[in-house]
Amino acid sequence: MKKNIIILVVLLLILIIALAVYFLFRPTQPPVSIIFKPDNNVKRSFNDVEMSNGNYIVTEMNSIDENSRLLRISPKGAMTVITTYSGQLRGLTTDGSDFIATGIDPSGGNVLLRIAQNGTTSIIASSISGGGALTDVAVLGSDYIVADPANERLLRITPDGTVSTFASSPGGYLRGIKAVNNEIIVAGGYGECLGRLYRVSADGTVSIIASETTLYICSAYSSVAPDGSDFIVNSGSNTGFKRIKPDGTIIDIINPDIGLATGPVGLLVRGTDIIVADGSPATLFRIAIP
Predict the structure, then answer these.
(1) Residue 252 to residue 107: CA distance in whole angstroms
(2) Contacts from 164-173 at CB under 8 Å and sequence distance 24+?
(3) What's the pTM?
(4) Domains of the chain (ranges, CATH numbers)
(5) Are the beta carbons of 207 and 198 closer than 8 angstroms?
(6) Could you read off the pLDDT of 71-128 as tens digits, one per residue?
(7) In this predicted structure, which of 18-27, 149-158, 254-263 has the lowest mean pLDDT?
(8) Buried b / exposed e across 186-198, counting CB within 10 Å, b at 16+?
């Protein structure tokens, strides 16, 4: 009897030690906070996020009436509407003064829009050819580079609305693009969901920074954000966030299970935080970079 008690005590001690080791060394998820969630956010979806004058600028679409809004959201979550557009607002960037957005007009055509800080909206280019929606936009010099995933290409659009092909060799599923050091960084996919991060020089030459199936950038929800010399990529709510080094090394930094909904469609890196525009239901998150 005494021997059995000793064995039981030893087993309990082993269990306690094992639990202590697990809780001490288990991976911890970074702090996640909600900056803003619109009323009836189930019927709304965010498409992209940028930063201007210390505020977050977000493109939002209402699934009920198909109208879109451009929102200005303060770091504390106060929201104002910059403008309402009777179509879809999708990708978003800024040229330093105005906002530049890809969209779909009420007749179903692809457009590139200029939106002033006061909400005044003008058309840079309309009836832009493509087999589907144009997803994202970046400013390169005085021109605009637009992702056209249906045709597996990047478009160059000049301020006067002239449209030409900037690069045609990146794979399909082109989603998030950013301009960095006079180059374009593109999160895309190729083949059976082989995720790729591309670098496109100012003359349209394409090279691959990283290529791996775990990037899974064929998801509809993917984006890229510069973080110094590195890049932060999310490629869907089921794959989490990854840091990609300039030499192509891929590092998992945030696991998928952090409470996001369908998946991020817009990313910003500000200081030690990732700002995430979650798709639907619409929510703007702040996630601390571990």
Answers:
(1) 42
(2) 166/200, 166/204, 167/200, 167/204, 167/205, 167/206, 169/206, 170/196, 170/198, 170/200, 170/206, 171/196, 172/218, 173/149, 173/217, 173/218, 173/219, 173/222
(3) 0.82
(4) 32-288 (2.120.10.30)
(5) yes
(6) 999 999 999 999 999 988 988 999 989 999 998 888 888 999 999 999 999 999 998 8
(7) 18-27
(8) bbbbbeebbbbbb
